[in-house]
From TrEMBL:
The protein's name: CDP-alcohol phosphatidyltransferase-like enzyme
Annotated transmembrane regions: 77-101, 150-169, 214-236, 242-264
A Pfam family: CDP-OH_P_transf
Keyword tags: Membrane, Transferase, Transmembrane, Transmembrane helix
InterPro entries for this protein: CDP-OH_P_trans, CDP-OH_PTrfase_TM_dom
Gene Ontology CC annotation, any one: membrane
GO MF, any single term: phosphotransferase activity, for other substituted phosphate groups
One GO term (biological process): phospholipid biosynthetic process
């Protein structure tokens, strides 16, 4: 089928859609797939993709929808109490589901483009910056009283900055390799693993306490929900304040460890 024909054709079955939209090189990606996608979302995403392919929405349009859902996730956390946190968890899962679908629509219609990759980055960067800001506002608690509550909103802002910096380190690697004329980095353990010594041992130890994985939108919403549940018994905003105060230094440690791991790996070696 030609590219023009595929752009207007619809799959005849979910199995056919899976074969095209979820090839082995997609399902086998080590870092590009969030654990929710690998565990269960990829099982359901073709059904939503099937519905999207019946419309005229483009793959980039689906990505724009993903961005809006991500922003709504952060906005939900501004609702005080457990219901805002619960809504954020649901929206966070929905964002990841739509995130699966934009690539599936692009692969079926053969419309993958740098613009789509760029929009995907915008969606994840902005969402994962807005959620910590919302956590800071939850820690300040309503009604906000300034300047006293600047402490908690500032902690949330610093957490957002550190999380975005940590995400940017991976993209900095790709930019550095491209500027040096090196090939695209393979998404394999051999390319990302430190070359040995103390750093490799510390990385193995981190697998038993993977706090560096807490800063994705899904994990942050789950943490917010857990804090809301515990807060029912221990009181709020105490629990939310403890959460952001714990998350910030761990995030700083994650950035430092991430930087050292990159420098100790083959990723930035010619």
């Amino acid at each position: 089928m030609s590219q023009a024909g595929r752009a207007h054709a619809r799959p005849t079955s979910i199995a056919e859609l899976r074969a095209v939209a979820q090839p082995p090189e997609v399902r086998g990606r080590r870092n590009a797939e969030h654990w929710t996608a690998s565990l269960y979302l990829r099982r359901f995403s073709p059904y939503l993709t099937w519905l999207l392919l019946k419309t005229s929405i483009s793959a980039n349009g689906v990505t724009a929808l993903m961005i809006l859902v991500g922003w709504s996730t952060a906005a939900a956390l501004l609702i005080p109490g457990i219901w805002g946190a619960l809504l954020a968890v649901v929206l966070g899962q929905l964002q990841m589901l739509v995130d699966c679908c934009d690539g599936e629509v692009a692969r079926w219609r053969r419309t993958s483009s740098p613009a789509g990759v760029f929009l995907d980055k915008v969606g994840h960067y902005t969402t994962e910056a807005l959620i910590p800001l919302a956590l800071g506002i939850r820690a300040a608690a309503y009604p906000l009283e300034f300047p006293a509550d600047f402490l908690w909103t500032t902690v949330g802002a610093l957490l957002a900055l550190v999380i975005v910096l940590n995400k940017a380190l991976n993209d900095m690697v790709h930019v550095a390799r491209a500027n040096a004329g090196l090939p695209k980095l393979a998404d394999t353990h051999g390319e990302t693993a430190p070359r040995g010594g103390l750093i490799a041992k510390l990385r193995k130890a981190a697998r038993f306490l993977p706090f560096h994985r807490l800063y994705h939108s899904v994990e942050l919403t789950l943490i917010a929900l857990a804090a809301a549940v515990v807060g029912l018994f221990l009181g709020q905003p105490l629990v939310d304040r403890v959460v952001v105060l714990v998350l910030l230094p761990l995030a700083i440690l994650s950035v430092f460890g991430h930087f050292v791991a990159i420098m100790a790996s083959r990723r930035v070696r010619s």
